[in-house]
Amino acid sequence: METVSTLTPSQQEAAAGILSGSQPGSVIVLKSKPGRGRTAVLRHVHAALGGAFLGMRQFMDSMTVHQPAALEEAFLRMLDRALDSHDTVIVDDLHLVTAVVEGCGYARTYLLDAALTAALAGAAMRKKTLIFGVEDQAPWPIGRRAYAWEIAAFTAGDYGFLCGAWLDAGAAARLDHARIFRFAPALNAWQLKNACAWLSREPGFDTARFVEYLQSQDMASNVELGEVQRVDWNDLKGADDVIRALESKIALPFENDELASRFDLKPKRGVLLAGPPGTGKTTIGRALAHRLKSKFFLIDGTMIAGTDDFYFQVRQVFDAAKKNAPAIIFIDDADVIFEGHDGRGLYRYLLTMLDGLESSSAGRVCVMMTAMNVNSLPHAMVRSGRVELWLETRPPGCGARADILRARLAKLPPPIGQADVEKLAAASRGLTGADLKAVVEDGKLLYAHDLANRQPERDVEEYFLEAIETIRGNQSRFARHRPERLPGAAAVGFIGEACAAEA
Question: Is the pTM of this model over 0.70?
């Protein structure tokens, strides 16, 4: 940050506050998250007030005459020497010192507090001004005495300022800083600087390329997309109403910057997607993962089962989603995760996380849950307010079944790929999209078996009809559970034209 000669608007506000509060004998603390330019602000203050500027370099030099475990003496010696010859002393990165002395392996617990108390008392008597820079909270001897200022989170104006400082005028003018900020509002100055330095080697780069770089470098989903089957909305035959709801109430606020800014659009905070197995719930998750890339975060049984630190993992997911907002947290098979008594602590923890999304800083995080049986979900999880959008996936109608079969058969060679789609769609009433995939796979295996054994070929439809009957037998044998209709939910998804047999 020292390479930026002037300060961003957020940094200027913090610097102005420190300068206005500086007076003989005062103690001031500047707090800042990493990468917001705390050192740059303190350098600016130092240029205005003069005095001594102490950082970790000076602290390490002071330690050369003390034992490794005598951090307090080294720190106090450094501070006293500066106060002897300066009326204002600025100490940056104090949190690095306190992190060591508060560590479980450090033997002299609380001794730094005693050293700070002595130093502050001496400075007050001599009317010296002390200014400390920290990442979070200052040690209590300082905190109880100090005026505190904090560098606020960056705004679109800060993004524009920083990009303007590190890019030539033409490149900076090409960028839509408001759009970049909307896409990634939690970047720090180092991340922006790295993006500018990297992209400055590409003549004519634009906002879309800038966003693409950020997505590849500074934004992290917990899903490895290379391991997720690539699907899109076109793979969800007959789910037009579900897709329309997701497009308008989730994807639009994520992707249309102009309309989102104009109307202050936000995605729905909580979405419940419920339906029988095989009706496309997880497929929707896959489609969203590929579409949103670094904006998609997954919580499923692999995170929960057999781990002692799942609370920590869930917390990390929510924190990462808020950092990368707008983002989706996708909880797959939520009813299975929360089934039984073992999940009570987890769902209460998740309730706390969900309620935390009401804050303005997390207002663009959507939690989407899938469930086969909504009655297995805790009532508090699905009450009004936490779940704002209820969608239901159901087995495809006849027209949708025909579309699914037609798409799959088109990949097969003749004659097996030329089966009568309408006949098969009529015979497969009640089967899900996953069932139809199995029908095609089993049908071609039966056909290949006859070829391999030089058996007389049947009509190609018969192979698929046999597969349909096998699946129906399995359904009867295992009495596959079908969830009740969601109370108050619209019958959305997998609706097609009725076959004559269904009319």
Answer: no
